[in-house]
Amino acid sequence: MYALSKNDEIREIQREILRLKREKSAYIIAHNYQLPEIQDVADYVGDSLGMAMEAKKTDHPMVVVCGVHFMAETAAILLPDRKVITPERYAGCSLAESITPEQLKEWKKQHPEAVVVAYVNTTAEVKALADYTVTSSNAVDIVRSIPEDKEILFLPDMFLGMYVREVTGRRNMYIWPGECHVHARVSPQDIARAALENPGATMLVHPECGCSTNCLYLKARGELSVPMEVLSTGGMVRYVKNNPDRDYVIATEVGILYRLQKEIGSDASRLKPLREDMVCEYMKTITAEKLLKALEKEQYEVKVPPEIAERARVPIERMLALSSPKR
Ligand code: 13P
Ligand code: SF4
Question: Which domain holds residue 299?
């Protein structure tokens, strides 16, 4: 008897996942930050908007969401008659934790006429108090669709909010001071260092990054010496797919590098993370082993109380109606 290597062990678990997925007619939706062992067995890998759109489209009786809790909750809200499973109950999100329903109720009292625009990185209870949800790939378009004279309360990510305000020029938009612990620490100095170390490389920057507004400002003034785009994770995948011959520095969670490498093929050295320490530990709690257990035991089912789900579905559906599928 010989011992299996870690890779052999993972491959064996993946075979079992694929077998059970077929047997139970389950559909696996994963986020771009998930571990390679998850991305390789998922039916769909994408950004938060793509995940919600895919959940709504599927007719499978069981949907397994490999991502953080709010992503599974969004699928459960959209699919009240289906079994929605998360392989890890405690896959949280620091950004979603940065505003509570009580805080939002208080804020709304101060601006009773305002339209509430909530990033999907929020709990179901917070979504239930919102008028629209947005993701990083449609926030600009959705804010533009709201009549100019309406005040907007944008929550909870301040960097995405400031980025949207900068792009739309919207001045009557109030921004909640929340942040994601992975992206907030990215500074303009990180971009400057990476530009010096990687001459000619294109910077792809997630709008949650602490530097996104500064970068945009410098770009608009023609003072940024490197090509730079601010994009959602799905936007980054599309950009690299359409421009496979460039060198890139990627300013978001490092899990996306595996996804991007798949798009660009052999030469992985053309893709560099801005910072190796951009790791979302919540995303990484989901492993092939836990996914297998989730399929075997059909655990952990994500249930949103019907009265909350009904209200939270309204801003999500409004967002989906205003978003077109992106290729
Ligand atoms: P995307 O919608 O761009 O994938 O972002 C989700 C997220 O949690 C980023 O940290
Ligand atoms: Fe939440 Fe940040 Fe992790 Fe994205 S990277 S899931 S915003 S904690």
Answer: 6-90+284-305
